[in-house]
Amino acid sequence: MAPASPRFRFPPEGGVAAGRGGGRKMADSGKGRPSAGGGKAPTAEQVVARFNRLRQEQRGLASKAAELELELNEHSLVIETLRDVDPTRKCYRMVGGILVERTVKEVLPALESNKEQISKIIATLNQQLQAKGRELNEFREQHQIRLVGEDEPRQPPGDGAGGAAAKGGSAGVLVS
Description:
alpha+beta, elongated
């Protein structure tokens, strides 16, 4: 069958997709299965698009959490430094893009409060990241998406190599 797009190739029904490079995934085409909405089953392109969207959302959450971890480390470093300084000493703080002059005793509580807030946000992001990971794994299992480099899933004894094809197994989708 001709490629549907430069990134995706759909093998014949019940066939096995062969890829050119690593980092590609196999996905169930979703044919013959009712969707949660009760309408038509999602097409292979829709499954791939949703899977990629979920992965991108997960990467975005991880990126934001890493960014906030760096900011938390900066706050910790500044707080640690300011604790050893005379509380009446002048210091400068960037507030909304404007540099303001304050004393250490005014800035230190604000920094500690910000650090607490950042910690709470990181905890929330980590929870969201775990939930997104579970959602991604469930979606992957539901649509039988697997990495090309992964071993074939072990089939129960007696199913044999042709068991899935004989039962009307679905075609794979090659995803980059």
